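Morning run. Coffee first, then this:
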Amino acid sequence: MKLLSRFIAGAAFAAATSIAFAADIVDTAVSAGQFKTLVKAVQEAGLVDTLKGKGPFTVFAPTDEAFAKLPAGTLEALLMDKQKLASILTYHVVPGKVMAAQVKPGQIKTVQGQSLTVSTMNGAVMVDSAKVIKTDIVASNGVIHVIDTVVLPK
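And here it is:
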């Protein structure tokens, strides 16, 4: 009985520890494996500390394939222009933790200052021109929703 009690206490402690040490948005993106370009851009723009911060943040995260759809030379040029890169990246971030069930069609103000347009088209949720392909990847300081296109401020 004592062994069972210790096991249960140990399991409870392990569960509590894993919750307390859940990965932040940056570490979650790194471990997902499909956001290598986004993570590199976040590093180049100097936004790592911000996205590892308290938050909470909602990130509409373009996949590596989304970045590959940009016209030739665009990504390279953005990586050289940190101010423009930071503006584009923060356009993908909304303050607060907005789960998919809470998203409603309309305008959502971004950290960048402009608003994203959320809509539905043919049963898919769209953020500007990007299709949301996966939702509610929870991080310790927010949530990530995966999109198939890099969205650009107006």
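DSSP finds seven helices and seven strands in the chain. Good start to the day.
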